Amino acid sequence: MEPGETRHSLSQLRRGAVEYCVLALLRDRERYGFELVRKLSEVDGLVTSEGTIYPLLTRLRRDRLVTTFWRESESGPPRRYYELTDGGREALAGFTQEWTRFRDGVDGLLRQEGSG
Amino acid sequence: MSTAHTNALVSDYLRRLDRAAAALPRSRRTELVAEIREHIDDALREADASDEVTVRNVLERLGPPEEIAAAAGPARAAASGRAGVLEIAALVALAVPVVGWIVGIPLLVLSRAWSTREKVIGSFVSVVPCLLIGFLYAGIGAGETTSTEVGAATEPGGAGLGPLEVMTLGVIYLSGLASSVYLAVHLRRTREPRTLEV
Predict the structure, then answer these.
(1) Is A51 close to B36, i.e. CB distance below 8 A?
(2) Strands (E) located in chain B
(3) Which of A37, A41, A56 faces B71 most closely, judged by CB atoms?
(4) Whole-prediction pTM value?
(5) What pLDDT is stored for residue B151 in this prediction?
(6) Which of B121, B125, B117 is closest to B95 using CA atoms?
(7) CA-nearest residue of chain B to A59?
(8) How many CB atoms lie within 10 A of CB A13?
(9) Element (H, E) at B144
C-alpha cells in the first residue's frame, strides 16, 4: 500500500471515530462547541483541522443524536451547548461495544503479523 | 485589544469560508460562519491575546476554510460529483430560449450542484425578461389595437423584422444565455471544495 493510501484510510477511520468521541464527551454533561473542540484536540492525531468539528456537530444535531440550547456565558455572548439525546446515548453504547471488538481483533492480527 | 491588521486576517478568513460554503443552503452557511467566528473569539479570549501570532495560530488550527466547507457539504458528495450529465443538459437547455427553459428549469431544480438561491436566480434570469416583454407587448397591444395593429396586419410585406423585434429576440436569447453562463460559473466554483470530501 502506498503511504498516501495509508494516510487516506487513517483519515477515514479518524472521521468515523471522531463523532463517537463527541458523543462520549457529552456522556456526563453538556458542553459548548469550543470546549468540545479543545477536548478533541488534546487527543493526539484525532483532529487535523479544528474547524471541521462544527459541521460534524451540525450533522449530529440533524441526526438527532444531540440537541442544542443556548446559555448565558460569564465571559462573552451566549453560547450554544450540546447535549446527548436518548438516541445519541444508544448510538454511543452500540459503538463502544463494536469498537472494543474491532480494536481487539485488529490488535490481535497486527501483533500476530509483527511476531510471525 | 486587536489591531486592524489582525482583524483583517480574521475577516479575510471568514470571507474565504463564506465563499467556499456557497453551495450550502443559506441558513447553514450563515450558521457555519457564525460558529467559526465564535470559535475564533473564544480562542482569543482564552489565549488572552490577539497579536498576529496568536491569531495566525488560531486560524491555522481551524484549518483551511475550504476544508471546513467541504466537511459541511452533503454527505453523499460522491454521488453528486458524478451527476455531470444532468448539469450539462440543464446548461445547454437553458441557453435555448423558451423551449429549452421548459426542459432546463426542471433539470436545474433536480440537480444538487446548485444552491436553492442559485437555482432561483438562474430561472429568473432566463424567464423574467421574456415575461416582461410579453406584458409590454400585451400593454401596447391593448392600447393600439385599433391603429397600428390593424395596419400591420393588413400589410402583407411585414414579414421582415423591425428593430424592435430584433431587439426583443435579442433580449430573449441573451437572457437564456446569461442564465446558462451564470449557472456555469457557479457550478465550477461549488465543485471545487466538493471534490475534497470523499
Answers:
(1) yes
(2) none
(3) A56
(4) 0.59
(5) 44
(6) B125
(7) B72
(8) 10
(9) helix B116-144
Note whether A79 contacts B: Cβ–Cβ < 8 A: yes
Order of strands, edge to edge, in the sheet holding A66-71?
Answer: A31-32, A79-84, A66-71
Give the phi and the psi of residue A83 in degrees, each rounded to 5: -140, 145
How far away is chain B from the Cα of A76, in angstroms, using its nearest Cα? 8
- Percent of chain B, pLDDT > 90? 32
- Contact at 8 Å (CB) between B98 and B130? yes
Return the sign of the alpha-carbon dihedral for residues B46, B48, B50, B54: negative
Interchain contact, B72 vs A37, CB within 8 Å: no
Which residues of chain A form beta strands (DSSP E)? 31-32, 66-71, 79-84
∠ CA(B25), CA(B29), CA(B35), 5° rounding? Answer: 145
Percent of chain B with pLDDT over 70: 78
Cβ contact, residue pair A34, B38, below 8 Å: yes
Q: Which residues contact A81 (CB under 8 A, 6 or more apart)?
A: A30, A31, A32, A68, A69, A70, A71
